[in-house]
């Protein structure tokens, strides 16, 4: 059997990308889409008005308190894209919807103009879905380079067809940019570990800056990838071997970290007048926001509850169209959900339906991690990166997530997809392996 031609990879990714894009326009609405749309005004302030003073951090909080709070608590990539699209459509800040008031119902918000204009929402959702499609392509390449091509095919399908990934990544929110940033950091990390050239350290730093600017929690995946890149040089230094090469690699990781900080600052003008003051301010504000969300919407009451939520959203894949229970009573939202789920574009419907299947996925992931750790067919550097990223992301998400909100578990879904695909491909090879090696030594899909 001949090797499958490389162009099939592109065709496969194009099909997955078109599927992601096809469902963007029939997504059930989420109130945060209104908030993200109005945050696009920062693009207008900077690119059209050229008024930096409107976005700089004001420690007195005297002017535009609400705008400033949203600005420094959230990522910038999505809002710049939405603002750019609004400008292309001839809209300015005065033409946008009002912010969504979560303490009031859907009809009240709709009557006060909180629903985004249909054409602007359509363009914003397409932009978010396109970023999710690009994330799928980056994830495919990461798995292909770190494990192998067959695993990349299956893992990318699980990634692109996961219902929660589609629900959140297609909406005009931050999740499309968030997941794209995460996968770009992983891809840059494996490229670096394969060769360790200076331009690859710079690429990792650039992708890291984009990722953290897209959504601040991406700082966790950046730290994990940088730690994976530090393993080899630290080990060599500890053993007293090749200290010059180890020092060079340590300097490269430091360079990547510096570029990450620089790119993040360039994309966050609000930080320019207070780059050292804002980190503790944002941590305090984020902690307070989570506390208020738990009070208003209900959070986990115990660590056992956190474990249950972790299992439900990570391994069962419980679908979640809204976080506020009152939304189940809104006929317009129920109608949108029914239309979306009946369209054939909602992903793999069996995901999220069975706790038993979730338990099986959990066991497969644990087994896959153990098998991968011992798999000499995967490079040591790639194994270290995958396992450190998967375990670190899982533990940090479990520990830091106080709310049963599916989108907070999205960063774990690529790791689950990879491990499930890895076990499935290895099992298929074991079941179909014939006695003795093939004459040509070629894996049909490699």
How many distinct beta strands?
0
Name the beta content range. under 5%
| Class of secondary structure makeup | mainly alpha
Radius of gyration: 23 Å
Specify the overall morphology: globular
Question: In terms of per-residue confidence, which ranges show pLDDT below 50 for 5 or more consecutive residues?
Answer: 437-446
Helix content: 55-70%
Question: Main β-sheet, in a few words?
Answer: none
What is the helix/strand order? HHHHHHHHHHHHHHHHHHH
Q: What is the overall number of helices? A: 19
The mean pLDDT is 93
| Alpha carbon gap, first and last residue | 12 Å
How would you describe what is shown here?
The protein is mostly helical and 446 residues long. 67% of the residues lie in helices and 0% in strands. It contains 19 helices and no strands. It has helices at residues 7-22, 31-39, 41-48, 65-73, 77-88, 106-111, 118-146, 149-160, 163-170, 175-195, 198-214, 218-238, 243-266, 278-297, 303-316, 331-341, 355-373, 380-400, 413-432. It is globular, with a radius of gyration of 23 Å. The model is unreliable at 437-446 (pLDDT under 50).
